[in-house]
Design goal:
By secondary structure, the protein is mainly α. It has 11 helices and no strands. Helix content is 68%, strand content 0%.
């Protein structure tokens, strides 16, 4: 049914411009890519924190991703392929997120005034997510490129040497706080936006989600700092002779240090 203004103007329904679906599609893609990256970072944190169990365990996790336990030898290129996929998703997510950033100083001042006036918790969280996301444009890209080009330099000694002797620990420390804050807030905002875990009382559900977000963020920050400290300690102990590659004791001298009984015989060969 046409409005009076449309009848007077002689505008029919067929003449109305169709609303584009692309903003909604880009918003959905941004949400999905952010979810994938956040879940990947949680998994990544658990993998690198394997050093807290033992050097041998961290070595085994590394070799698993290099295909050693499947092909009988390590292929670091597998890690490069995974990193490349993550890098593509990261760039896509960043490109889509930029649509919502202040485009100029005027918009920036308007947002800051809006935030300060309302003093709304979720608006402040968005601002923290914006700042940490901007920092990750640089921090995460550098790290991903290094892993893409040098996938074989991952291991108890290799990673520790990079962290301490290579002086990557300041970047990793800042990146740790940025990625955990950014990812945690992002997952919280996704849950609120799409109504995940929403009960009968939306306000109560939001409070529970926010509390859970801070608990999870605190857990991963403690785990991340402890893990980084462990690599720094190993690197510091090796500061006079860096550059060596770690090999489990049972591969160096099997008679004196046999592998656990549950390791298959084909895993006992020295990796090539």
């Amino acid at each position: 049914m046409q409005t009076g203004a449309e009848v007077i103007a002689g505008v029919g329904l067929a003449d109305r411009p169709r609303k584009s679906r692309w903003p909604a599609r880009m918003d959905l893609t941004q949400s999905l890519s952010g979810l994938v990256l956040a879940l990947f970072m949680w998994g990544h944190m658990f993998f690198v924190s394997s050093i807290l169990v033992s050097k041998d365990f961290m070595w085994a996790i590394t070799k698993m991703f290099e295909g050693y336990f499947f092909f009988g030898r390590a292929f670091p290129g597998i890690v490069s392929m995974v990193v490349f996929g993550v890098l593509v998703i990261f760039v896509l997510h960043a490109f889509l997120a930029m649509r919502k950033f202040p485009a100029n100083y005027r918009q920036y001042r308007m947002f800051i005034g809006h935030k300060n006036l309302l003093k709304h918790g979720d608006t402040t969280l968005w601002w923290v997510q914006f700042v940490t996301g901007f920092a990750l444009f640089f921090l995460a890209t550098v790290h991903l490129y290094q892993m893409l080009m040098h996938p074989g330099d991952i291991g108890p000694f290799e990673s520790a040497d990079r962290v301490w002797t290579g002086r990557w620990w300041p970047l990793y420390l800042v990146a740790l706080f940025c990625v955990e804050l950014h990812g945690g807030i992002g997952l919280y905002r996704l849950a609120v936006k799409w109504g995940w875990l929403e009960g009968k009382d939306a306000d109560a559900s939001r409070k529970r989600l926010k509390a859970a977000k801070w608990v999870v963020t605190a857990f991963f920050l403690v785990l991340g700092v402890t893990t980084l400290a462990a690599y720094m300690k190993i690197g510091y102990d090796r500061r006079d002779d860096p550059g060596g590659r770690y090999t489990p004791a049972w591969l160096v001298n099997p008679p004196q240090a046999p592998p656990p009984w549950w390791w298959p015989s084909w895993m006992r060969e020295t990796p090539k």
